[in-house]
Amino acid sequence: MKRRTALPRVPTVLISLGLIAALAVVSGCSGRNKNALAFDGVVFKARTKPVDKKVSRADFTATVFDVSRSLDGAREAARYEGTKYCIANYGSSLIDWSVGPETEPGRLSVADDAITFRGRCDP
Description:
Helix content: 25-40%
Strand content: 25-35%
Number of strands: 5
Oligomer: single chain
Largest sheet: 5 strands, antiparallel
């Protein structure tokens, strides 16, 4: 009767662990959120918040960063963020912008590569 010699399990375990590690690294390479929207080909970081939530959440500011990448894209990103904010807080997408996406470029103020728009949700 021939006696079988067992193959060492260590190489199989190491190969399996290596494949798992490689899959984990590759799956994390996407970088950005897959749901992120691009405006004029650029994904902008933006923040929307109420001017004074103790008084009213209707008045808000929408700040968009990295404006130098595309002013037109930043304007549309601000419009989108404002619309999301008003829908979340008032169920309506109507906005009365005091300084907004339709404001003439000469009247816009860019500071530290960011632009801030101001609007009021109009439910």
